[in-house]
Write a structure and sequence with these properties.
92 residues; mainly alpha; flat; Glyco_trans_1; EC 2.4.-.-; Glycosyl transferase, group 1 domain protein
Length: 92
C-alpha cells in the first residue's frame, strides 16, 4: 500500500512492479505511468480513504496475475545511472 499525497517519481512503485507484487497506490506523480498495464496494481485518488480501502480489498480477494514487465522507458528511468546523471546535470 502506497498512499502518497504528493509524489515525484515513486521508486517504491517501480520496485513493486519489478517484483510483480500487488500494490495499491495513489494517483500522484509518475505512479499512474509506472503502474500502467500492471494487473496486480490499483491506482486510487489521493486522500480517498474509501478508494484506498476498496482497492486493498479488491487486491486481497483477487487471484495472482502475470504482470507485464516494466517498459524499457520505465526501466531506463529507474536505473541508478540515470538518477546519478540527473542529479549531476541538475541546473544550479
Amino acid at each position: 500500500v502506497y498512499p502518497s499525497i504528493n509524489e515525484g517519481y515513486g521508486i517504491n512503485a517501480v520496485e513493486a512492479r519489478l517484483l510483480g507484487i500487488k500494490i495499491v497506490a495513489t494517483r500522484t506523480g509518475a505512479i499512474p505511468e509506472i503502474l500502467d498495464g500492471m494487473q496486480n496494481a490499483i491506482v486510487v485518488e489521493p486522500k480517498s480513504e474509501d478508494d484506498l480501502r476498496d482497492g486493498i480489498l479488491s487486491l486481497i480477494s483477487s487471484r495472482p496475475a502475470d504482470n507485464n514487465p516494466c517498459s524499457p522507458e520505465v526501466m531506463d528511468k529507474s536505473d541508478l545511472r540515470h538518477t546519478i546523471d540527473a542529479y549531476l546535470n541538475f541546473p544550479r
